[in-house]
Amino acid sequence: MKSQITSAVKIQNRGFLIMEMMIAFSIMTLFLSSAVMLSATMQSLRMQAVKELENLERFTFAPVLSDYANAWGRDSCSASFFFNPKKTFLHSSGLNISSNPSTDLEVRNGIAYFTADSPVGSSPDFYIADMRDPESPFIISSINTGPGLSALEVAGRFIYAANSGTTNQLQIIDIADRHDPVLLSTLKLPLPHASSTAPAATAIFYSRGLVYLGTKKWEGNEFSIIDVSNPASPKYLGGFETGTLINDIYARDGYAYLAASDIAQMRILDVRDPSNITQLDSFSPSGWETQEGKVFSYFEGSLSLGRTPGGFNNSNNHEVFIFSSSSPHVMEYSRDIPGGVYGIVIRPPHAYLATRSTGREFQIWDNSLENLVFEKSLGFSPRALSCDRNNLYFATGDGKGVSALIIEK
After folding, report:
1. CATH fold label, 76-407
2. pTM (predicted TM-score)
């Protein structure tokens, strides 16, 4: 009898054990299935997020589809950017950067990053300023990187800056801590001869881990491509000799557009192989003998070019050009802008221009450049123009540093 009871207990225990194993197996299967589903869901969400960000970047009109770990792009206009002439207010920054004339800027969420080129070598040449309250802006931080900076690109936690000196042409600044920016690395362009004097850098563009750098005319390549996938150790990849000063660069889909100071005021280069760069086309408008290609802007496949005035104004020599969205080689619209164009933002139905027309430094035209919609005196000669959300910002070229044009709803 005892034996029978023992056997029954063993069978019962074995049944419980089998049931527990089945439950454990079911739980493990459920856990593994959940983990696989979670991983797939996370991957799907990640891909969806990247897609949405790319769509967002298209709608916010950034000039390049960038990878978001490394770039912000030049422009951060609101998708609902609009113009209200009755509610447009100019705010002089009052930042007071002394004798350091500002040279270039980009603005992100009301934070301005701008460069300066001071005659005093020990003065700061890079600034970060809080412009979120345009009536009470303030400098967050500044550093001195050397002889001065002529242009910059903001990409993630890094600033890529064109250096105005001859010691090095590229400087990379880490802005992970806005209150304590750090000069992370520099690069000097290769010299064609040991006795060559390196040039000052004058223009810069960033896209997808590459920096496109332009310089003044010298013995070597005025246009260079630099790998900055590791910002702590930039690597020179190749260059192209233009034989002239480069004032601005825009790069996209394997092509680079150069705003230059000689007869070819806009050059189009094939840069898909940095070790074998070739020129595909150029644009030579009338007036090139005294005028220079100065600044680019890009919107929805359409490229625009601004030029300097070239001294005495000739109405036949235009200062702003808009090229076809189907082909950047075909010029669609152009306009004479006395004083020259130093900044462009295209947002149909308007083209926003920073000019040096005295008393008319800010102008808005329809996007066919036929009709002047609005103009405003800025009280300074702008060096650069940046758009952030629904506001426009100018590098003033003087001790103010930055001024904001606030467009209120």
Report:
1. Methylamine Dehydrogenase; Chain H (2.130.10)
2. 0.81
DSSP 314-375: -TTS-SEEEE-SS-TTSEEEEE--TT-EEEEEEETTEEEEEE--TT--EEEEETTS-SEEEE
Q: How many CB atoms lie within 10 A of CB 176?
A: 11
CA distances from 40 to 11, 47, 271 (A): 43, 10, 37
Place of tokens 């950067």: 97
Q: What is the DSSP letter of 150?
A: E
The structural domains of the chain, with segments of one domain joined by +, span: 1-59, 76-407
pLDDT digits (tens, 9 = 90+) for 92-125: 666 778 777 899 999 988 999 999 987 776 789 9
Rg (C-alpha) for the chain, rounded Å, is 28
d(CA 57, CA 70): 14
211, 209, 203: which is closest to 68 by C-alpha?
209
Residue 243 identity: G
Taking the C-alpha atoms of residue 406 and residue 87, their distance in angstroms, rounded to an integer, is: 8
Each residue of 344-355: pLDDT tens digit?
998 888 899 999
Q: What does residue 231 show for φ and ψ, rounded to 5 degrees? A: -60, -25
Which residue shows structure tokens 């801590």? 177
In which region does residue 294 sit, left (phi positive, over 0), alpha (psi from -120 to 50) or beta (all else)? Answer: alpha
Dihedral in degrees, nearest 10, Cα atoms 299, 70, 105, 113: 140
By three-state DSSP, how is residue 4 classified? helix
| CA 60 to the chain's CA centroid | 13
